[in-house]
Amino acid sequence: MAARLAHLDQVADAHVAALLFGAGQQEQTGVETDGGNLIGKTIEYRNSGGTPLE
């Protein structure tokens, strides 16, 4: 995943209802093993105002 959640305005414009994150293979990191990166980026994104849905 990129250093930040990017292009979510384009995701919202495409009427996407949900984004799912997870490891594709056993050797890859997941939410439980990424040291809090995904949750931290999600909180940072929410605190910045997020992307408005129309």
- What string gives the helices and strands in order? HH
Shape: flat
Q: Structural class of the helix and strand makeup?
A: mainly alpha
Oligomer: single chain
Helix content: 25-40%
Mean pLDDT across every amino acid position: 81
Quick description:
The protein has 54 residues and is an all-alpha fold.
Task: Explain this structure.
The mean pLDDT is 81. 31% of the residues lie in helices and 0% in strands. The protein has 2 helices and no strands.
Structural topology:
Blueprint (H helix, E strand, L loop, with lengths): L7 H6 L23 H11 L7
Summarize this structure as a short list of keywords or feature phrases.
31% helix, 54 residues, flat, mainly alpha
